[in-house]
Every structure is written in C-alpha cells, then in structure tokens.
Amino acid sequence: MTLNLEKNKRRTYRHFSERITDVMSLDNRSQFRALRARFGGGHVADRAILPIGNDEVDRKLPGGGLVRGALHEVAGGAHGAVDGAAAAAFASGIAARTGGMVLWCHSQPDLFAPALAQSGLTSDRVVFFESLDEASILACFEEALRHGGLSAVVAEIGHLNLKASQRLQFAAETSGTMGIALRRWRRQTDARDFGTPTAASTRWRVTEIEAEPLPVRGVGRAKWLLELMRVRGGDCADFEVEAYDATGHLGIPAHLADRSLAPVAGWGRAAS
C-alpha cells in the first residue's frame, strides 16, 4: 500500500514538472482556449462549499464556507509576511479539510512537513513541488488546478497580478479544485503587494498573537488574529481564533465566548 502511494506521488510530481514549460508559453488567447478545451472544454464545476471549521467564522462567509472551486489568498501579518508560519498553518488546515490529495508548491527551503500534520495535512496526502523560480511556481499552480485530480493546491507566491490571478481563478472554477495562494515575500516592504487587486474569492491575513496561559508548564495551542480582508459577496471581519488542530477545527478562545471582534472601521462594505 505504501509503495503504491509513493509511486502515485512520484507520478503526480513528474506530470506537473513535465508540463511547466508548456504552460509558461501560454501568452495568447488562442493557446489559452486550446488548453481550456483540452482540460474540460470550459465546463465550470459545481461551486461546492467547504466549511472552514468554526461556526463563527463560517457565518461570515457567503454560503457558510469557502468555495471549493475558487482561488483564495492567505498571508501572514507583521513578521509573518516573511516567515509565513501562521499563514502556512492556516492554509494547511483548509487544505486538509478538502479531504483529498494536495499539491504544495514552495520556493523557500523552510517548509516543515510535521507542522502541516498538526493542522491535519498528513504526509500521505501531500505532494511537494519545489522551485526557486516564481514563474515556475505559478505555472505549476495553474496546471495543477486544471488537472482536476487534486482536492487542493497550495502555492507560495510573492507577486500576484490581476491577470495571473484571473487565470488561476478560471482554472479552479473549471476543475472544482481549491487554490490557495500563500503569499510570502523576501522583505517586509514587499508585503505592500498584498493590497493590489486580484481575482481571489477571499483574502485572509493571519497574525500570531499571545496564546492563552496554561495552568501547567508547556506550549499551548497557537492563537491567531484572523482577518477576512476581502470576500466576494460578503463583509470583512476579524476573529481571534485558536489554530487548527489535527481534526481540522479552529478554536475560539474562551474569553471571547463565540464573539467575533468588533468590525474595523471602513471594512463594512461588501466586496464585488
């Protein structure tokens, strides 16, 4: 059983590696239409909803969760814009909840697989693709979303412009695979790019904050300030949550007792 799983993972990795060069050359509409026909003829998959794992957060999302066949953006706040630890844990928790195989594209050598397992994304369900070239990461991201055999694709990306995000959103809609753009930057100042418009269905910022004290010595469950900065057809909101556990659930700290934080001024309008 283990041998067959490893063979399948290597075959998946090889498939995406071989297709990167072809995808990177798709710069005109005729080629894009040809690729669309090859990978499903433009059929848009049903827009199923994936609950995020906490009732308070899900109530703020149209339909009660995240659209599976869509692009979602996640970034770390404060120093997390560079190290991406909390954002990666949040992304892995969402990916784990999709229930199938996940492709994780990364460009920096600091990804710690056991930490993903703490959020429910175990090693038997994830294939890793590593490249120092961000263009290759984007190409693999798009190709994997079009493939249709994965439940989610996570890709570490610094710069993401509107055109590239539209291609990713279309690919996710076509296959029904969830795409998570994990935004990471080499320098703190580069994080300003997170404010530029994209076609993503939701945009999240995850900042690690001080955890609840334990009655005994030890390390407790991480706590995050989870900011829903943009959601198509809904309102922005902030939450204090406890990190995903191995069962794929976000916790709400006891002192909040199921209350989200007060909305930030100016964030009350719905996103188009």
Architecture overview:
The protein has helices at residues 2-24, 29-38, 55-58, 80-83, 85-97, 113-118, 134-147, 162-175, and strands at residues 49-50, 66-67, 71-76, 102-106, 126-130, 152-157, 178-183, 202-209, 223-231, 237-242. It is built from 8 helices and 10 strands. The strands form 2 sheets. An 8-stranded mixed sheet has the order 5-4-6-7-3-8-9-10, sandwiched between helices. It has 272 residues and is α/β, with parallel strands linked by helices.
Helix and strand topology:
Layout: H1 2-24, H2 29-38, E1 49-50, H3 55-58, E2 66-67, E3 71-76, H4 80-83, H5 85-97, E4 102-106, H6 113-118, E5 126-130, H7 134-147, E6 152-157, H8 162-175, E7 178-183, E8 202-209, E9 223-231, E10 237-242
Helix pairs in contact: 1-7, 7-8
Q: How much is the average pLDDT?
A: 80
Number of helices: 8
**Rg of Cα set:** 18 Å
* Share of β-strand residues: 15-25%
| H-E order | HHEHEEHHEHEHEHEEEE
Low-pLDDT segments, ≥5 res? 20-29, 38-44, 257-272
Number of strands: 10
**Biggest pleated-sheet summary:** 8 strands, mixed
Strand order in space, largest sheet = 5-4-6-7-3-8-9-10
Class by alpha and beta content: alpha/beta
Helix percentage? 25-40%
Relevant terms:
alpha/beta; eight-stranded mixed sheet; 272 residues; disordered C terminus
